[in-house]
Amino acid sequence: MIQSELKPSTLEWAKVDLESTPHIETTPPGPLSNDYHSRCCKHFKGLSGQVKLFPVTFESGEGCVLRDVDGNRYIDFSSGIYVTTLGHCHPKISEAIGKAAKTLMNAHDFTTPVKTALVEKLAEVLPGDLNGFQFYDSGTTAVEAGMRVLRAATGKNEMLSCFYDFHGKTYGGVSLGHIRSLAYGRTRAPGAHMVPRPDPYRPLWVKEDGAIDTDKYIEFYDEYILKGTVGDVAGFVLEPIQGWGGTIMPPDDFFPKLRAYCDENGLLLMIDEVLASWGRTGKWLCMEHWGVVPDIVTIGKGFGNGFPVTCVAVREPYKESFESISASSSYGGNPMACAAALASTEVIEEENLLEHAAHLEELALKRMEIMKEEHPIVGDVRAKGCLMGIELVKDRASKEPFDEAGKLVYQKAFRKGLAWIPAGHILRMSPPIVMDDDTMLKGLDMIDEAIGEVEKEFGY
Fold this sequence. Notes:
Layout: H1 31-40, H2 49-53, E1 58-62, E2 65-68, E3 73-76, H3 79-82, H4 91-101, H5 113-125, E4 130-136, H6 139-154, E5 158-162, H7 171-175, E6 192-195, H8 214-228, E7 233-238, H9 254-265, E8 268-273, E9 296-299, E10 310-315, H10 335-350, H11 353-374, E11 378-384, E12 387-392, H12 403-416, E13 418-419, E14 426-429, H13 437-457
Parallel strand pairs: 3-13, 5-6, 5-7, 7-8, 8-9
Antiparallel strand pairs: 1-2, 2-3, 4-10, 9-10, 11-12, 12-14
């Protein structure tokens, strides 16, 4: 049994009373949830897979707890899909947004005091010379802007991304991602290329000793650029950790080697950190784990802790490229958005949450390793801060994905009172980084129980 070592801290406001949560008053989705959902879906279409699998109707949230309309209370292991990194309705952030909403709601891209404070704070906390910024209202909008900066800074058009990457749902982002739908067109955007990247659990190239041969991937990129492009490559656009792909983490030497390759060949490195940044992995930017400073980086999701605000940050040599891409937007950098992002940043500093996220990673990995030892369908477990994944397989030798089990585990744990994220055979978890140890362990226990129940159903 993993023991909690929770120490008194400023996180007490978010501590979950495990005597009252999780609490299932009516088997979810309950009658009120079903009623609201059916009424809404007469008009509202295009729901995500997680809602289709478990159509509960949420009413409120506080800290690490969600409540539905039927009176059920859930431990939140989703953070609104990587968004409410600092928990629901953090007092300081809610107050900052409310104050801005009562003062000035929008002034297009004119300067405001809160915007000035935010950009100065960003220049202070971000690594290297990442000191040029623009603000947007969604991740995919920031990605598209970052891609325009990439083209403007290099005068080139082609870009490389990786299999299973996700960069949003506009045409440019989709063209560098894994989404497949004829609605986005029958071809990728001109100049969009995709290449493999090292997956430690499913590598393409390994050395004689079984270690991942990262050099082979870099060699392949070099050959592909020579033979598979028209020689007009601006750079790479990659996720640091692939979120939608299933919390796929690279080997530690991948990004340093890719950074060196880009520098040697006059390519820029754009990293899409919409999902992984702002404390989620225990660093401001996930790339800091590998000591790599991107030329362009997108920041989002937890940046405003639920308020729609995202950022494109660029290094000093490239920030003037914003001037040539029509960078401003109607909602980007509005006072409410800047207030949310600034307050979120200050909360992370004041509550030592980067350190706490790293602590939760260590705690969760110990518990998940035990699950891997005890459950034959658990093929792999991984975590970086509070970005976590469990991969389910039909057997460990073949590593065949076990999608059916993934869906059932998701539903069973949700019925026990755990709100979280499905991804086929990969169980994704993104608990708030303000979560206390005991609640983290309770959530993982619920997943453990659900996996055991599913194994019995399939005869393991």
